[in-house]
Structures are given as C-alpha cells and as structure tokens.
Amino acid sequence: EAKQRGDQRVHAFDHAMEQALEGRLRLETALRQAIDGDQLRLYLQPQVDHRGRLLGAEGLLRWQHPERGLVLPGEFIPLAEETGLILGLGQWVIEEACRYLVGWSRCPQLSRLRLSININVQQLQHPHFVDGVAAALASHGAAAGRLTLELTESLLIDEIDTAAVQLAALRRHGLQLALDDFGTGYSALAYLQRLPLDILKIDRAFVQRLGDQPETLAITRTILQLAEALSLKVVAEGIETPEQHLALEGLGCRIFQGYLFGRPQPREAFEALAKGKAAGYALEASEGRNSS
Ligand code: C2E
Ligand code: MG
Ligand code: MG
Ligand code: MG
C-alpha cells in the first residue's frame, strides 16, 4: 500500500512537470506569434527635468495578448531570455523606437524628445549588434543622437571589457548609454570604471527607501557625487511621491521618472501629453517651488 502511495506521488510529480513544460511551450509558441502578429507594444513613460519639462520617455515593452490582455515584461522576458527569443523581441523594440523617433522628428512639438530603450545582455553580446542598430537607424532615417540604450548590471565581470568595446562603438554612432537599476548589482563600481557611459539610473529601490532610511539618503548622495565626478547624468526612477521628488531634488538630482510624473502609456497618450498639455504639465510638476 505504501508503494502505491509512492507511485501516486511520482505520477503527480510527473504530471506537474508535464504541465509546466507544456505551459512553457505554449508560452514560447505564443510569444513567437506575438512578434509576427502585431501583438507587441512599446509603451512610453515620461522623463522630466527639474523644472517639470518633458525631456522624453523610456520605452517599456508590453504584450497585447488577444485573450490575456496586457502582459508585463516580467511575465515573458525571462522565458524570452532562456529561449533566445529576446533577440527577436529586442530587434522589434529597436525598429519601433526608430519609427517613433522619425514620427517625432516631423512634429515641431515632439522633435526635441529623447527616447530610451532597454537592451538585454544577449543583444549586446551578439557580434552584429552595433551594426544592426546603426542599420536600423539609417534605414528608418532616425537620429542616433536622440536614442539612449539602457543596460543592466547583469554582465559578468570578465565580459565587461568586451562589452566596453561594443558600447564605445555605439557611442561613436552618436547614441547615449545608460546603466539601469544602478546600485542593485554586485559590481556597480567596476561597471562605472570600465564602461563608457552617459547616464546612471538610480534604482527605484533606493528612491522608495529615501524617506525612512537615513543611510539610503547618504548612499544616494554619494551616488550623485560619484556621477558628477565621472560627468554622468543621473535619472532617478520609480518616483511615486512629492516627498521622494523633493528629497532627490535636494540631493541635486535633475532628471526624474516615476508614476508621480506619468505611468507607462501607449504612444498616442504620451504624444497627446507632450503636445497638448506640455505647458500645464510643466506648471503642475513645479508647483510649490520657485521656477528658477
Ligand atoms: P526597468 O528598465 O528598470 O523599467 C522600470 C520599471 O519600473 C518598469 O516596469 C516601470 O513600469 C516601473 N516603474 C516606473 N515608475 C514606477 C513607479 O513610480 N513605481 C513603481 N512601482 N514602478 C515603476 P515594467 O514596464 O514592468 O518593466 C520591468 C522591466 O522589464 C524593466 O525594468 C526592464 O528591465 C524590462 N524591460 C521592459 N521593456 C523591455 C525591453 O524592451 N527589452 C528588455 N530587454 N527589457 C525590457
Ligand atoms: Mg530601463
Ligand atoms: Mg530600471
Ligand atoms: Mg529593472
């Protein structure tokens, strides 16, 4: 009888495994179809300066699934990374970014906006990545100088020097480079020392602890000083409250991103914000402070 119970357990386990594998396979197939089937969206989250002026946006990937609705990257990027589908997704993001930039360049109210997109390490490590980005920009007629690539601290230390060569080439093409989620990885300082960068993005984990942890304030101040010493711009992300905004401003931060200034939104909504409400938006964001 004990043996029988054991067998049942093994069967239950096999069944769960099978279902998990099947689920992954279904997701993988669906994700492949998403790329060809016009189900991907590049949402835009506003980035503003210290006067509340709109500087541009970060593009964030969404999957508009026919049945499941809007799916967030956390639910499909990990599998895309495992299966190599990330390269196809990444290519789509680059092309879409080019289309946005070209559209903006034709409209006086939008032509100064910058766009920042997220790049996966696998993309960066691909031997033709730099040529691919340059080719996409050229074929669409988009200005490299308006595009920023964000990368996270997920490179291994011994991959840094190879990455640095690729990044230097991208910069020669006129792109700007940002280190995303700064402060959350293991090797933050090694990255700063060895990669050619333009921008540091302070992770929202720091921003959200600013109010209740004095040491977080000290660390954030140090990050800003370090950035200044290295001539890097700083973007603080994940700002949700006016208190967080004020604290960061007090520390000398000049570029902000977070729900307080706008959620990630479809292109049309972002463009309407940039066009129609640009003036009101600036007033609203600098409310209660001197408009220096
Ligand atoms: P990330 O690049 O650090 O993007 C910022 C994330 O924080 C976004 O989540 C954004 O929606 C969220 N966020 C922004 N402001 C706030 C705020 O005030 N409060 C809170 N709680 N969250 C805020 P999202 O869109 O779910 O993206 C998650 C991550 O997925 C991104 O983190 C990025 O690493 C990755 N990702 C997104 N799009 C792409 C893409 O096109 N390619 C690649 N390779 N990765 C992407
Ligand atoms: Mg990012
Ligand atoms: Mg980030
Ligand atoms: Mg992140």
From TrEMBL:
Every EAL domain range: 24-278
Record flagged with keyword RNA-binding: no
GO function term, MF aspect, one: cyclic-guanylate-specific phosphodiesterase activity
Keywords: Membrane, Transmembrane, Transmembrane helix
Keyword Transmembrane: yes
The protein's name in its UniProt record: GGDEF-domain containing protein
Native organism: Bisbaumannia pacifica
